[in-house]
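Changelog note: in this version the structure field was regenerated for every chain. One regenerated record is shown below for reference.
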Amino acid sequence: MNKVDANALELQDRVVAINRVTKVVKGGRIFRFAALVIVGDGNGRVGAGLGKAKEIPEAIRKGKEDAQKNMVTLEKNDNDSLYHEVIGHYGAAKVLMRPAPEGTGVISGGAMRAVLELAGIRNVVTKSIGSNNKHNVVKATLEGLKRIKTPSEVARLRGKTVQEILEA
């Protein structure tokens, strides 16, 4: 078994939304399904994908494959929270994510909760502002998570030591 297969085995997935799409034709209606799937390893890697097919299980399978192709890696601090407050935007969706102390848990709604839990973030307070479209909320959450910087990255960018950054 190669390394890619080993990584694929430890991934968890969660279906966030299944949308039934109807096309009306001369002979009647044709139903298709679109599934929004989140995939993560619970340790800083998470991705989202959209699968479309005539059957629900096939749409979920395609969504899972798409999510694995679009995975992002993020850093979390010692108490499984974010390093700093971050805002993610996608379309009309805007999400605010704040770090929280140990024991707070994931205080978040539906689609955003799935992304954060599968990313391995255990203590965070969030707020979804604007659109509540699940696709856009998930993409805004991932966009925000990509923008998080560790203290060492900030120190390197500013030409200072990590200690100077943490004291400021």
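Spot check on this record: DSSP finds six helices and eight strands in the chain. Residues 1-6 have pLDDT under 50 and may be disordered.
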